[in-house]
TrEMBL record:
Residues 326-338 have a biased composition (Low complexity). Residues 150-159, 279-290 have a biased composition (Basic and acidic residues). Residues 189-200 have a biased composition (Polar residues). This is Uncharacterized protein. It comes from Ascoidea rubescens DSM 1968. GO terms for biological process: endonucleolytic cleavage in 5'-ETS of tricistronic rRNA transcript (SSU-rRNA, 5.8S rRNA, LSU-rRNA); endonucleolytic cleavage in ITS1 to separate SSU-rRNA from 5.8S rRNA and LSU-rRNA from tricistronic rRNA transcript (SSU-rRNA, 5.8S rRNA, LSU-rRNA). One of its GO terms (cellular component) is small-subunit processome. Residues 150-241, 270-360 are annotated as: Disordered.
Length: 360
């Protein structure tokens, strides 16, 4: 820990020495009559801009000026804090002059902090939002400028390439003049190609006429059963053998790796827990009906069969659901005794002899 403190003190003393040296240099430049060249250039540019009557303020100029003032105020804050440290270290006797000097330094510090805050707000709230809005226009302007430069470079290169091509063409024309006399016999018409084209056109005409004379034959399609959808299973009653139990759905959700979209807590409970719980299929069906009604501006009436079905489902859920939980897995009416597999005789299938016995 001591080593860390020593290192920190060494670094702090070095930074203070550098700040003091920079302060001395700045004060020396201010005392001199000569102004640095950079400052002179900036002053000249500012005077030129004054003569040019610009409408409004440029965004880039605002950004540059605000960044410059922000950095300047940060430097003032660091300098004032260094001066305060020096003032407290050198202060041995409380004098009025030293007190006034400390107050002035604190005033400069507070003012520079306020200026940094204002410039930061300008940069964050003003400049950034405007840059986002004008970013597309800036990119467009830059791209057009780059394209114009590229086109100008290509135009400069084209005359040279055209001149070189013309020279090459003149040389090649002199060389080809001698070879043309030898190759005149090679450029004769090919009669065999003409015969092939005549045959192909005649064959196409024969095929088209034969197709017109024939009867239409529909294409053979193999018989396939229509695809089953979830809507068919939804229309079946609740007592069907292929019914999916809620506990099985919960088990698949718990141990499955697929992403799930869960409803908010309590939104699936119907009639304060008396009407059971809405399943995923019920919610999907309600969503389909809602989408259809909203898109077509039509309210779908509920039929008698649907009302009966909903009442039957609610009664079934009241028997199996308690406190928002499904206990239908424990209410399985199936029994696997040997007597259940025997065929029961109906009253209509009884014989005349059994009827006679009953009469007695």
């Amino acid at each position: 820990m001591a080593l860390d403190l020593d290192q920190l003190l060494v670094k702090m003393t070095a930074s203070v020495e550098k700040a003091c040296a920079s302060q001395k240099n700045a004060s020396g430049l201010l005392q001199k009559d000569k102004i640095p060249k950079l400052v002179e250039d900036l002053l000249l540019e500012s005077e030129k801009n004054k003569n040019n009557k610009l409408k409004g303020m440029s965004l880039l100029a605002l950004k540059n000026s605000s960044l410059l003032s922000y950095i300047n105020n940060l430097a003032l804050i660091i300098l004032s804090k260094v001066e305060l440290l020096d003032h407290h270290l050198e202060k041995s006797d409380e004098n009025t002059k030293d007190g006034e000097k400390g107050v002035e330094i604190e005033k400069i510090l507070n003012k520079s902090i306020e200026n940094t805050v204002t410039q930061r707000v300008i940069l964050e709230r003003g400049v950034k939002s405007l840059e986002k809005k004008l970013n597309y226009q800036f990119d467009k302007i830059v791209n057009t400028y780059k394209r114009m430069e590229k086109d100008s470079q290509e135009l400069d290169k084209k005359p040279k390439s055209i001149a070189s091509q013309s020279i090459n063409e003149n040389d090649s024309s002199d060389n080809d003049g001698d070879s043309d006399s030898d190759d005149e016999l090679n450029f004769k018409p090919d009669t065999q190609s003409l015969i092939k084209t005549i045959k192909s056109t005649s064959e196409k005409e024969n095929v088209s006429t034969s197709n017109l004379n024939e009867k239409y034959k529909p294409p053979r399609i193999s018989a396939v059963a229509p695809p089953t959808s979830n809507k068919d299973s939804l229309d079946k009653p609740m007592k069907s053998k292929n019914k999916r139990i809620q506990s099985m759905d919960e088990y698949l959700k718990e141990y499955g790796n697929a992403p799930l979209l869960e409803a908010s807590i309590g939104s699936t409970i119907v009639n304060h827990g008396r009407g059971g719980v809405k399943t995923n299929r019920d919610r999907e069906k309600e969503r389909e009906i809602q989408d259809y009604e909203e898109n077509n501006f039509v309210r779908l009436p509920s039929s008698k069969s649907q009302r009966k079905k909903s009442g039957r489902e609610s009664r079934q859920k009241q028997l199996n659901v308690f406190g928002g939980e499904d206990f239908s897995i424990f209410n399985n009416s199936k029994s696997f005794k040997s007597s259940d597999f025997k065929r029961k005789r109906s009253d209509n299938s009884s014989s005349a002899w059994s009827k006679a016995k009953r009469r007695r």
